[in-house]
Amino acid sequence: MAADAAVAALALLPLARRAHEVGIDPASAMSASLVEPSWWLCVLAVALLYAMHGCIWRWPDRFATRSRAFPLRLLGRTPWKVFARLEMIGKVWQAGCVLLFLGEAGRSAALDALRHAPAPIWALSLAYVCAGQALNLAMYTSIGDVGVYYGFKLGARVPWCSSFPFNIGLRHPQYVGVVLTLWGALALLLTPAAERAMLPQVLLVWGGMYALMAAMEQLGDAGAASKQT
Q1: What is the rounded CA–CA span in Å between residue 147 and residue 212?
Q2: How would you classify residue 194: left for phi > 0, otherwise alpha for psi between -120 and 50, otherwise beta?
Q3: N or C: which end of the chain has fewer CB within 10 A?
Q4: Among 131, 189, 153, which Cα is nearest to 59's?
Q5: CA–CA separation, 49 vs 68, rounded Å?
Q6: Are 66 and 72 in contact (CB under 8 A)?
Q7: In whole angstroms, what is the distance from residue 14 CA to residue 188 CA?
Q8: GO biological process: any one (predicted)?
């Protein structure tokens, strides 16, 4: 997991430089957001999806049983398919919560940031997003929904995978991919107006949630089972 953390941390270095260039003090910006109840509500709303992950990881048998009962059984024929559908619903929920939190002024600030981001920042953002989504796509290609969505804990046999992306030294390639994607968005949204809307702060903490997820899985299981997620 050290390699995962190193990749995520190193990818933040160009963003720290960008923040300095546009006059954003990350420590002050984060401190300001911590005293805003609406920011906390947004962060907690985003975190609900990962709380669901934690519950399924901790109590897989209970989830498997409930996934076969109404209404969850409407989402899929297997527990991991139900989990996958809940994940999609959760992503829509997260996006909606962030947009609601931003309000009209915050959404306008985000659009302005995208319109006025210089070409090198767009290049950096695209590099991060492409790398992140390559890892994400490789996860689904190599182990499928059954591997990604805790199938090995939900009663399925998930074959061991040693090909890409599990052969590049990352313990949680998908989580690294998502964090890189978030950092790609963050690169474009580092403007004083977006910072006042507290959007970069949300994205930064959002990335941190994946670090907690990775730690939970590593501590809660070992060896092949942990690696397959």
Answers
A1: 20
A2: alpha
A3: N
A4: 153
A5: 20
A6: yes
A7: 12
A8: methylation
Q: Indicate the burial class of 98 (C-beta count within 10 angstroms; 0-12, 13-18, 19 or more).
A: buried
pTM beyond 0.85, yes or no: yes
Nearest-angstrom CA–CA distance, 202 and 190:
12
Distance CA(201)–CA(207), nearest Å, equals: 10
Residues 198/206, Cβ–Cβ less than 8 Å: no
CA pair distance 1, 218, nearest whole angstrom = 8
In contact, 152 and 79? CB cutoff 8 Å: no
Contacts of 90 (CB under 8 A, 6+ apart): 48, 49, 52
pLDDT of residue 220: 65
Which residue positions in the chain have pLDDT lower than 50?
Answer: 222-229
Residue 32 falls in which region: left (phi positive, over 0), alpha (psi -120 to 50) or beta: alpha
